[in-house]
Amino acid sequence: MGDRPSTTNKLSISSESSAVTIGREQLKGWLASKLDNYFSYDVGFQRSLEYLWGRDIYRQNAGQLYHFGEILAKVLDGAAQEANLEQNLPRLRQYDGFGERLSEVIYHPSHHIVGRELFGSGMLSAYKEPGNNLRSLSLFYLSSQNGEAGHNCPIACTAGMIKVLQAVGNKQIKNEFLPRLLEEDYDLLFQGAQYLTEVQGGSDVGANAVTADLRDKERGIWILNGEKWFCSNVSADLALVTARVDGQGGGTKGLGLFLMPRRLENGDLNTIYIRRLKDKLGTRSLATGEIELRNAVAYEVGSPDQGFKNVMSYVINTSRIYNAVAVTGNARRAFITAQSYAQHRLAFGQSIIRFPIVQDLLANMRAETAAILSGTFHIVKLMDDLELGQTNEQAAGFLRMAINLNKYRSAL
Asked: Cβ distance 70 to 143 under 8 Å?
């Protein structure tokens, strides 16, 4: 005799199917609850800016921040996610169909959708005048809530390049390159990069071996030879490069700082050879590669015997404050994501946000995010005060220490 269908089994399958449907609906509800404006819902950030700027200046900038926060949440969040899909990651194209060298990086269209808005937001053009770090980095904080997005590292590198050229660049390279670095039009602007790391010299920068030989003393033109091991934004229009100057000695004292263009004055490619792109665990929509320099043309930035000092004072310090602001934005997004998920996820018949251990975790996340934001933006405001001559030497000394300690602490 054949087995009769079990009514109990039918009910079990039906119950299971219903539970799965509910689970999917919970996830859909969570995704639908995503913020539609990163700025308008961030009351703590608003109050911090109003305190640091004062009410009048805050009101002058709030409209731009509100508009940018909406674009980031409604448009760029999805584009940034699309650019990070495996099939959309950057790829290297070495030669064209005729065998001519290109050494170019091909990006997915979503990468440029994000870049057009981020670079066009005014966060870099703000540096045309001193005392605008708070304005620039407020925009950067909001953009960091979409993760690295393939552009936040290039933006930080470009900011460092702007700072060092403004501080120690000669008149020629300022006139030639600063306008394009400060440009807001994505199709016209120059992006910056920093090529400091070599395979034998990571944190030990004094072990770097790329050489620099003077070609034209009057114009400050040098020729660079050697290898750089980890070059983020490897297709950048301009790169800051450390190289060893003959006669300056060993270690960091022997390093000069140089500005290396991707293309020469006549439009030809500089002799920068991209060997390969790195297969990284993170920041994958940002192209990072290994390069070889074969008599590459570069311009001195400041006095060659002050190269390492200028790198640390203007380039690395800028990168460190950008890193801390990026972490602050990442932390804010992580908290918002965790909180909204806890509100929508059901377990044991109720939202998990009702469980004390979840509430404790969320409270800690919120407190740490608030602390990082407060400390970091206090430092940013101090940077503005220093640039505008509104502080003293004691505060300047504190700033030199605080930037480094804050970067370390915020990244933990």
From this structure: no
- Helix spans in 91-219 (H): 109-119, 133-143, 152-168, 171-181
> In the chain, which stretches have pLDDT less than 70?
1-16
Kind plus residue range of the DSSP H or E element containing 78: helix 77-83
Cα angle 51, 54, 56; round to 5: 140
pLDDT reported for residue 2: 47
Shortest CA distance to 239 belongs to which of 284, 167, 289, 170?
A: 289
Assess contact for 226 and 258: CB atoms under 8 A: no
For residue range 35-92, what is the model confidence (pLDDT) as tens digits? 999 999 999 999 999 999 999 999 999 999 999 999 999 999 999 999 999 999 999 9
Contact indicator for 192, 238 with CB cutoff of 8 Å: yes
CA distance 228 to 293: 8
Say if strands 192-195 and 238-245 run parallel, antiparallel, or are unpaired. Answer: parallel
DSSP 183-195: ---TTTPPPEEEE
Instruction: Give the tokens for residue 382.
Output: 């101090």
DSSP for 352-371, written as a single string: GGGSHHHHHHHHHHHHHHHH
Q: Give the integer Cα–Cα distance in Å for 411 and 112.
A: 28
Of 21, 14, 20, 33, residue with least CA distance to 353: 33
Torsion of the alpha carbons at 215, 216, 217 and 223, rounded to the nearest 10: -40
| CA neighbor of 121 nearest in space, from 139, 133, 146 | 139
Spatial CB neighbours of 326, under 8 Å, sequence gap ≥ 6? 140, 141, 144, 148, 152, 156
At residue 326, φ and ψ (nearest 5 deg) are -60, -45
Tell me the C-alpha to C-alpha distance, in Å, between residue 386 and each of 90, 181, 381, 400.
39, 23, 9, 11
Phi, psi (degrees; rounded to nearest 5) at 35: -60, 145
In the DSSP assignment, the letter for residue 107 is -
pLDDT at 15: 59
* Structure token pair of residue 64: 């731009």
Pairing of strands 272-277, 288-300: antiparallel
Q: pTM for the full model?
A: 0.93
- Provide φ and ψ at 353, rounded to 5°: -65, -15
Q: Three-class SS of residue 219?
A: coil
Position 272, amino acid: I
